[in-house]
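I am still getting used to backbone structure tokens and would like to learn alongside you. Please make up or recall a protein chain and show it to me in full. Would you write everything just below, so we can both look at the same thing?
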Amino acid sequence: MELDGEVEHYGFAEQVAAARGGWLQGRYYSDEGETVADFLSFRSVFEINPFEVGASHAKERRAFAERKKVVERLLDVRELARRAFTSLSNGEMRRVLFARALLKGPAKLILDDPMGGLDPSWRERMREIINALRRRGMEIVAPAERKIDGKPRNRSGRGSAKDAPVLVEMRNVNVAFGHRVLFRDFSWTIREGDRWILRGPNGSGKTTLLSLITGDSPRSYAFDVTVFGKKRGEEGSTLAAVRSKIGMVSPEQQVYLGETPEALLSAALAKNPKLLLLDEPCCNLSPKSSRRLLRRISAWLKAHPRAAAVCVAHRPEHVPNGFSQEMQLNFNGHVNL
């Protein structure tokens, strides 16, 4: 892969810029818009005016085509080509953004939390890719404190009693996007005091599952989903009523609302929620800030034993203390409890 001598950046700032013009729940309402293939095209990557007259960029296009073959193989972005960029999961979006940075052929690449949002297998693969790029002569700059994963946190804790009140009940939920099956006859019960860890590869449906609880996804009205004793569409089940009892922290909120994880957590806990949804709460935080945030979450949960919580995390050290129940999502609708 040839290098053209430029400097490129990859990280959260680039994700925010790429998502500009979108909205928080947009990924659940439409799979239309700029596709990944469009986003990674020659014209898009180099921001060429589509009405430009004269220049053919023939030499640059040939170099780009060769570079793209390598990048597509390294990052498996061809499998995402037909999907709308805004419909991607956080981890999938980060992969595509990394591909876009590489397609410019930079001699120097500045990385801000390059493993952020990636599942364990992709974190390992990203390390291999970065090392390979260094061997090819690319200068890689990354904050030292974000290179190594920490140790697992204490997972001791208890699940709720079997007769504890039910907060969320899902029955026989089926979700698919084209040929991509996320859930098949999926059922899940969350009771008062439950502390669930939700794991799974990028794109396996973790955030989509939470969107069925919050009502961010309109699909929640098509399924048998009961939240706080009310089915979707039933009197008293308005989104405002449901969300007033739910606190949430997610990377999508960071991207579209422009808030930090600390600010999002403050807003979530101010509700004194019955259900706390933590979708990668430490995403885009340094290890020191992550530990401080997790201590705050752990203290709040300990002081509110009846509150339920669900934590989506790719790294074991990003799970607060006291979580003892675990669900692993896999592709094609398979779930392990």
